[in-house]
Amino acid sequence: MSALSIVAFVAACSGGDGTNVVTDGPDDDETTDVGVDADPDEVDTSVVPEAIAGNLSSISYSDNGTPNNNSDDTLLVDLSALDQSPVNPDDNLEAEYVRNTALDVPGYVAFSVQDDPLDRLFVAMVGESEDGSVRAAVVGDGGQFGRYFNGATYERDEGAEIPTTGLVSYAGIYTGLTNEDDLDQDQILAPEAGTPSQLLPAQPRQTIGGIFLNVDFDDLAANGVIIERQFTDGEGLDDVYLTDGVLDEDGYFTGAAGMVDDGTLVTLGSFGGVIGNNGDALAGALALDTIYVSSDTRDGDFDEETGIFVLPRCGTDTSPAICDQVDDFD
Questions:
Q1: How many Å apart are CA 304 and CA 44, to the nearest integer?
Q2: Which of 34, 42, 81, 306 is 20 to 30 A from 111 via CA?
Q3: What is the number of domains present in the chain?
Q4: What is the pLDDT of residues 25-47, one digit of tens each?
């Protein structure tokens, strides 16, 4: 399935056309923090599992007062890696990333940073719910010197009301970053001719898919699937099943992520997330220990994927067309 058909799968049935790369944020709050926040009184912060958080500590994202224009959005990232010098080293270790529209996927805005041709290229993807109550981000590089750095996070704003009963569905677009090399390498700074290949960093290859998730607020359970998963250049990948999801009373959930290999569902990673205010949206992330099933001839010794999803609840104004088949809060 092409990226265009994925967009068609989740095309908004009302309130939008499904092609906006970012949803409107809160009108009275220009800046939101994604991940670990310095002031827990301002933001309810989830405990993102270590396997998902990876090297990422925090992200601060701002729409600069123009929620309908994402071209001037800004992003600060605190990543335990070699991305960039901190903006305010005396206060924190956040580095400034640059808006990169060439890497956008529907529903998410992209940023990147590379200090020079022989430093790593980091890519970040950020998504926020229409009501501004939840958001998620993923950051990663394509690798250099046999190692790469990545991580993902999600959060919910303070004061959210979480449903205590009902079976509901969420649907939208998933986006991921891998440690494989992008086929084009068109965002990386060009090195001088003759530079030894062993010194060169790589641009990470991106993934996209459609995601559908069911949540039971009575049994505190969640499960779902990422379908039509593929690299953004069009090469197809296996579906990812999100199983054994357990929801706590505060609306945070975790579970297993896996793929079907030779007819057997094999756990290959984990997922987690958080329910937004009134259950109108959720945000989450996953980490896969491999991009491929073992029977895939492309499977190697060291391929991984980390991704995020920010989804509206079926029945809300911006829920996608696939939601026409499900009931809201049974």
A1: 29
A2: 42
A3: 1
A4: 333 333 334 433 333 323 333 48
